Amino acid sequence: MNVVRPAVTCLGLIGLWWIIQLGLHVPPYLLPAPPRVAVALWTQRDVLAASTWTTLQETALGLVFGAVAGGAAALLMSLSPLLRRWLLPVLLLSQAVPVFALAPLLVLWFGFGIASKVVMAILVIFFPVMSAGFDGLRQVPPEWLDLAHTMDARPWRVLLHVRLPAALPSFGTGLRVAAVLAPIGAVIGEWVGASSGLGYLMLNANARVRTDEMFAALLVLSVLTISVWWLVDWGVRRLLYWAPA
Amino acid sequence: MQPNSTNCPGLRIDGLRLTYAAQVIFTDLHVQIPGGRFTALLGPSGVGKTTLLRLAAGLDQPEAGAISADDGRALAGRVAYMGQQDLLLPWLSVLANVTLGARLRGEPADNRRALSLLADVGLADRVDDLPGTLSGGMRQRAALARTLYEDRPVVLMDEPFSALDALTRARVQDLAANLLRGRTVLLVTHDPAEACRLAHLLLVLSGSPARLEAPISVPGTPPRPVDDDDMLHAQGRLMRTLVDSAA
User: Fold this and answer.
1) Domain count along chain A
2) Mean pLDDT, contiguous 10-residue spans, chain A (245 residues)
């Protein structure tokens, strides 16, 4: 894998940040210089590690359950037009309510712990996963289905051997989008009410005007999101060994 | 392994009627397709050749009339279909594509037979490869092996060689003619030379609603050499029929 380009990009961004901070004389409580953030990263490493672990669990659980739920809903809707007609408006309605607005309710219902954040992440990723999976199932080339028909195929075997594999590339796209959305869901949940996690840490640092700690948490969150995306992308590409890269 | 013409039924198309988007494609169409022989179906684009093939394959239903086997038994389950695209599933190996029908019916795949068919079409050394790594000619040969694996007495082909270059097309035509010998084959094609190389009987559809021109039979055994006199003579007659029917 080429690491030179991402490294150059990162160093470039850090350099730009430093130049802005120095050149415009921005006070450190608004924009701390990179070395201050590096120090915060080091001194707060235990808290950061524990918070990252919490957010990672919320993200991973949200991703797994959200992907399964989104995939299952896509499958049900593609199998039953009746269900599709009833389910789709409900799902659209659920998306019309901003997730931010739901967060306090979720914390009220599912508590301060990890559960409310997992539900939050599920809610954020469910729709993209479902619509990508549903599109994939709908866009199976009809010629393949015709061929299966002339082979006297059984319907559920067509689903297993033709429709599901054919829908995988589209479903994979949904999963990649979900991978970057899931941490957002988890962090929003933590902002509303939590006792641990990177979002909680940021809120806490903000209240104490510890901008360097906020930046440290933000950096760790970015690395976490990129890692989750990279892992999902790797898994999807392994699954789609046959698709053109 | 190859069936003889007595157990491959002919097709009888009786009183067929079909309307598509307010346009009458067929009305009271009658066609007789002989059993155990290669029949080529030609005609201008949009005349309903592919539609006729889809009706015979059971993929569409006519408004009136029927397509039946002339031995009195049901046609369903005795038809294999080969389209213009190879329709190989990109995630399955060549071998698994050939045995796809077995997997879709829930039968155990007969890999020995599939491997021997793949050897027949010259793909013995590519059985584990994915379709994406094959050339167009190889893919169409794999599709031919898949069609043969179905081992159906009636084979419907919709311009299966039209996307191939001239030399590859001639080779795959030879293969198809030899491996499908004795079956009832209905081949839709735009290529008069292809029709005259491969077919015993040439049918031309024309007009709207479509009607059948007088059938042309081609003497000799397919696949005929490209410079065969009978073939060239038939090709001349066929071109004349196509031109006259369009006038």
Assistant:
1) 1
2) 85 92 89 92 94 96 96 93 89 83 90 92 93 94 94 94 95 95 93 91 92 94 95 94 81
| Integer Cα distance of A158 and A147 in angstroms | 10
Beta-carbon count within 10 A of A19 CB:
10
Torsion, Cα A115 A117 A122 A123, to 10 degrees, reads 120
* Distance of alpha carbon A172 from alpha carbon B213, whole angstroms: 52
- Quick check: B47 pLDDT over 90? no
Do A150 and B77 count as a contact with CB atoms less than 8 A apart? no
Is position A1 within any domain?
no
Chain B CB contacts of A244 under 8 Å are 132
- Domain containing A167 equals 38-239
The confidence score (pLDDT) of residue A1 equals 57
DSSP 8-state secondary structure symbol assigned to residue B87 = -
Average the pLDDT over B234-241 and give the result: 88
Phi and psi at residue B155, to the nearest 5°: -125, 125
Name the DSSP class of B156: E
Inter-chain touch A151–B77, beta carbons under 8 Å: no
A22 inside domain: no
Give the helix ranges, DSSP H, for A151-210: 155-158, 164-192, 198-207
Closest C-alpha among A102, A163, A112, A158 to residue A134: A163
Bridge partners (DSSP) of residue B157 are B82, B187
Report CB contact under 8 Å: B104, A243.
Answer: no
CA A152 centroid distance within chain: 41
Amino acid A245: pLDDT:
64
Q: Do A161 and B103 touch (CB under 8 A)?
A: yes
B38-74 burial, b at 16+ Cβ within 10 Å, e below that, comes to bbbbbbbeebbbbbbbbbbbbbeebeebebbbebeee
The closest of B168, B159, B11 to B82, measured between CA atoms, is B159
- What angle (nearest 5°) sits at the alpha carbon of residue A24, between those of residues A20 and A29? 85
Tokens of A68: 């399964």
A154 touches chain B (CB under 8 A): yes
**Residue B66, pLDDT above cutoff 90:** no
CATH number, domain with residue A184: 1.10.3720.10
Predicted ipTM of the assembly: 0.89
